[in-house]
């Protein structure tokens, strides 16, 4: 009986162990930007926000998104019921585009 339980437990552990690497292979935008930031390739989000938020007075900041292919942050705002986006080069902090 102990051998059956041990075998079942062992198979369950192996099955769980095999499932973990598959999910670990998926990359999140947060993980991508963290990797790029640690390598010194992009500015921290807080630095980008310090540069952009003062220019968006009267708008509510909804949050950021990171595009790893473009190496750009997109900051999302709302003002007077309209959604606004500010795209920022993550490497330089330069504003690339604003929607009005």
Summarize the model shown:
The protein is an alpha+beta fold. The protein is 41% helix and 28% strand. The protein has helices at residues 2-24, 29-38, 45-52, and strands at residues 60-67, 72-79, 82-89, 95-98.
Describe it for me?
With 100 residues, the protein is of the alpha+beta class. It is 41% helix and 28% strand. It has helices at 2-24, 29-38, 45-52, and strands at residues 60-67, 72-79, 82-89, 95-98. The protein has a four-stranded antiparallel sheet. Mean pLDDT is 79; it is low at 4-25.
Report the span from N to C terminus: 71 Å
Structural class: alpha+beta
Helix content: 40-55%
Radius of gyration: 22 Å
The number of distinct helices, counting runs of at least 4 residues, comes to: 3
Per DSSP E runs of 2 or more residues, the count of β-strands stands at 4
Poorly predicted sequence stretches spanning 5 or more consecutive residues: 4-25
**Element order: H for helix, E for strand:** HHHEEEE
Q: Which shape, going by the Cα principal axes?
A: elongated
The neighbouring-strand order within the major sheet is 1-2-3-4
Q: What is the beta-strand fraction?
A: 25-35%
The main pleated sheet reads as: 4 strands, antiparallel
Mean of all residue-level pLDDT scores: 79
């Amino acid at each position: 009986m102990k051998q059956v339980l041990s075998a079942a437990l062992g198979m369950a552990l192996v099955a769980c162990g095999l499932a973990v690497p598959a999910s670990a292979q998926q990359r999140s935008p947060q993980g991508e930007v963290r990797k790029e930031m640690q390598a010194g390739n992009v500015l921290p989000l807080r630095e980008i926000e310090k540069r952009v938020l003062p220019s968006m007075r009267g708008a509510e900041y909804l949050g950021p998104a990171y595009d790893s292919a473009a190496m750009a942050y997109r900051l999302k705002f709302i003002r007077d019921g309209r959604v606004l986006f500010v795209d920022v080069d993550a490497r330089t902090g330069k504003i690339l585009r604003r929607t009005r």
